[in-house]
Inverse folding.
């Protein structure tokens, strides 16, 4: 049990974290199919829940057949359990937005993740300020919160902004008070002994997990979750959540809560999400750009690559911009790309869940601390 105190409107109650059951595929995946034969079929059928070796990026033909929908695509290997929670929600009758929310909750609650949720890296003042947004293709609805403090699930706050207010974005203390008013779980902002102890434990757990995975890794080796869902009926939704750039100036807002920056959904075309140095995404309306390139007919992977090339061409830093995108389109095609080589993303659909490695525009490689921390 996570040892922090959750605050609901009515008072302080112990927070019960979601119990994440191991994902059970609704259709047991065929274990002996080769990747080549799967791609030939237009699917990626790797065993859900298994520890999967990363495989090379999907060829631009990567797509799922209509019968394999829903399709969920997200950033980084830690997106895989989030995808699986999203799939479980959909198969249990949840809506697209429920799937986005439930999926991202997994990452926001993960004590090992040092870059999403309240376990994220604090800003320069030692405070964790979180950014999140959500979009619903039907009706082109959007909600967002930025620089919000003390709220356990910023993605839920973003969804409430979309559904319960006439606004798109709330920031700072206004966003926090709104989330509390909506009854969302929170932690107190003061450094009570319990909160301080919880923060210390979370930081130690994250560091230990990173060391276990790779002794060379720093604890700041994780990044934003952007999660995109294509439903069986062709509707699309997406969400994005992050603690942002570690050590950022207090009040700094990144790309992740910016509609068109860290996330964009167009129900007629597809969706895209970003991870990386937000300043290098938001100046170019990065996710919007990827969706617009898909509208022009590019495969999602090509659209991600082309958006990065365009940014790199304009940017004084050239390709050294630490930006990665994931995308899917209305036809069930998906892809991703990074400014550096080695960006990994997660793809899940009926009976299948996998971590893939995206092509990089290169020639840089994502280093041991992840693609998006190298400038910090
Ligand atoms: C930000 N884009 O706040 C986020 C952080 C991130 O990889 O994605 N890091 O700039």
């Amino acid at each position: 049990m996570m040892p922090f105190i959750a605050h609901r409107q009515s008072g302080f109650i112990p927070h019960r974290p979601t119990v994440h059951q191991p994902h059970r595929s609704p259709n047991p995946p065929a274990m002996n199919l080769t990747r080549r034969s799967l791609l030939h079929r237009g699917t990626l059928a790797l065993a859900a829940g298994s520890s999967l070796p990363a495989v090379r990026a999907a060829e631009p033909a990567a797509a799922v057949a209509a019968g394999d929908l829903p399709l969920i695509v997200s950033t980084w290997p830690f997106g895989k359990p989030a995808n699986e929670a999203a799939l479980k929600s959909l198969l249990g009758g949840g809506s697209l937005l429920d799937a986005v929310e439930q999926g991202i909750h997994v990452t926001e609650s993960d004590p090992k993740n040092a870059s999403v949720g309240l376990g994220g890296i604090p800003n320069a003042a030692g405070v964790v300020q979180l950014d999140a947004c959500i979009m619903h293709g039907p009706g082109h609805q959007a909600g967002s919160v930025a620089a919000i403090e003390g709220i356990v699930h910023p993605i839920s706050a973003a969804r409430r902004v979309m559904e319960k207010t006439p606004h798109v974005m709330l920031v700072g203390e206004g966003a926090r008070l709104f989330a509390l008013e909506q009854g969302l779980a929170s932690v107190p902002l003061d450094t009570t002994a319990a909160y301080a102890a919880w923060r210390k434990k979370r930081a130690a757990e994250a560091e230990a997990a990173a060391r276990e995975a790779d002794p060379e890794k720093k604890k700041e080796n994780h990044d934003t979750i952007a999660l995109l869902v294509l439903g069986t009926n062709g509707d699309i939704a997406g969400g994005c959540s992050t603690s942002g750039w570690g050590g950022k100036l207090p009040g700094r807002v990144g790309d992740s809560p910016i509609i068109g920056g860290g996330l964009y959904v167009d129900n007629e075309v597809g969706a895209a999400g970003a991870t990386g140095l937000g300043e290098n995404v938001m100046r170019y309306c990065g996710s919007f750009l990827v969706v617009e390139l898909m509208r022009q007919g590019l495969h999602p992977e090509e659209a991600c690559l082309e958006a990065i090339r365009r940014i790199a061409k304009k940017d004084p830093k050239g390709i050294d911009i630490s930006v990665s995108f994931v995308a899917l389109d209305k036809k069930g095609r998906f892809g991703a790309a990074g400014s550096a080589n080695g960006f990994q993303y997660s793809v899940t659909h009926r009976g299948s869940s996998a971590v893939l490695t995206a092509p990089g525009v290169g020639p840089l490689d994502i280093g041991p601390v992840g693609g998006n921390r190298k400038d910090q």
Summary: The chain has one domain: 4-191+213-373. The domain at 4-191+213-373 is CATH 3.60.20.30 (Glutamine Phosphoribosylpyrophosphate, subunit 1, domain 1).
